[in-house]
C-alpha cells in the first residue's frame, strides 16, 4: 500500500477535537487515509518536505455554480442587484451546452484546487441544450477533487410569474425523475466517497412549493442531502412575504427544508427567530461573503449564527457574482466582514480557518473529512509561509488569513497529489484556459 510522509512542517493544524497545532510534525498517509500525525514518523514511502510550511486540512467549498466561470465580469450584470443580475445573465446561460458546462467546471475546479480546496459542492440548476449533471462530474473526476454536485432545477418561468425565461425551466416530473437517475448512477454513500449527489431546487422564486416539498421527500427516501438559496437579500425577503405570506425560514420549515441533511446558501437576512430555528434543527448555512458584497446583498450574521450553534461553512458562489473562486481568500473575507460588522475581536483567523475546513465538512455531512487525524481521509493542503506574502509574520497560522499565501504549494486529495509546487498535476491548464476563452467569446457573440 502506497505511503507518503509530509515531513517537518512548521505547524500542522489538525482541526481535531482539541484543535491541536503541532510544531515540526509529520503527517503519514497510507492508501488515501491519514495513518499518523506527529513528530519523527518513519516510513519507506515518498517523502514530501513541508519545511517552512503550514499544513492544514483541505479547504471545503459548500456553494458554487461552476458553469458561471464562463460569465465573469459581464458588463450588464456588473452593478446590478440579485434579480436584475439574474435577468441579465439568464439569456446568456441559455446558449450553453455540454461543452460549456464541462469546460467551465474544469476552470472553476482548477481555481479552487490552487486555493487549497479538496472538496467542493456545485449547484447546477439549468440544463440547456442537452447539458447534464454528469458533465460536471466528469470534470471533477478529471481534476481529482472530491465532489458533491447537486441536481438543481427551475420550474417556474416568466410566463408563470417566475424570473427565469421559459426556455430554462423544466417540467417538475422530469426534474424529479432525473434526480432519481443521477442519484442512482453517481451517489456514493460510503466513507471516502469521491462523489455524493444532492437535490437542489434553485430557489423559492424559481420553483413551486410542490416541487420543494417533493424534492425533500425524494432526497430523504434516497438518503441524500438537500440544498437551495435562501434569504439572500431584501428582494428575497419581500418576495417570500408577498408570495407565501411568511419569511424564508418559516417557508423552509413548512416544506421540510430544515434538518442536519439540509444546507442553505447565503442566509444574509435571517432574523433571530430563523437563526434559532436553524440552530435547533441543525440546518447548515453556506456563507458566501464575496458574492454578498459584489451583489450588495449585505453581511450575513455569521457571528450570531455561530454563537447560537448554527453550523456555518463557506462558499465562493458562482464566478458571475464573485467573480473569483479563491477559497482561502473567501475565508479572509468572511473574517474581515464579521469584524466590520461586530468589531475587531468578532472573528479570529483560526475561527475563519475552522469554518473553511472542518465547518464545511460538517455541513456536507462528511465526517470522514475536515481534520488531520488517524482514520480521516488524506485531504491535505500544504502552504508555504517562507515567501514574500508571509515574510515577517510572527504567527504562521494566523498569517494564512491575515497575510497569505493565496495559493497552495501542495494539495492532496485521497492521498493523490493534485497540486505540486503550485502547479496542477492532473490538468493541462493552458489548454483549459484556451478553451474557456474561446467559449466565453462565443457566448459574448
Question: Would you kindly provide a written description of the structure presented here, covering whatever features stand out?
Answer:
The chain is of the alpha/beta class. Helices cover 37% and strands 20% of the residues. The chain has a 7-stranded mixed beta sheet, covered by helices on one side. The mean pLDDT is 97. Its EC number is 3.5.4.32. InterPro entries: Amidohydro-rel, Metal-dep_hydrolase_composite, Metal_Hydrolase, MTA/SAH_deaminase.
Summarize the structure.
By secondary structure, this protein is of the alpha/beta class. It contains 14 helices and 19 strands.
Largest sheet: 7 strands, mixed
* Overall number of structural domains: 2
Which range best describes the helical content: under 10%, 10-25%, 25-40%, 40-55%, 55-70% or over 70%? 25-40%
Termini gap: 52 Å
- The assigned CATH architecture of the largest domain is Alpha-Beta Barrel
Assembly type? single chain
CATH topology of the largest domain: TIM Barrel
**Spatial strand arrangement across the major sheet:** 3-2-7-16-17-18-19
Overall outline: globular
**CATH class category label of the largest domain:** Alpha Beta
- Give the number of helices: 14
Structural class: alpha/beta
| CATH H-level superfamily of the largest domain | Metal-dependent hydrolases
Poorly predicted residue ranges: none
On the 0 to 100 scale, the average pLDDT is: 97
As a whole number of angstroms, the C-alpha radius of gyration is 21 Å
Q: Strand-residue fraction? A: 15-25%
Q: Count of DSSP E strands?
A: 19
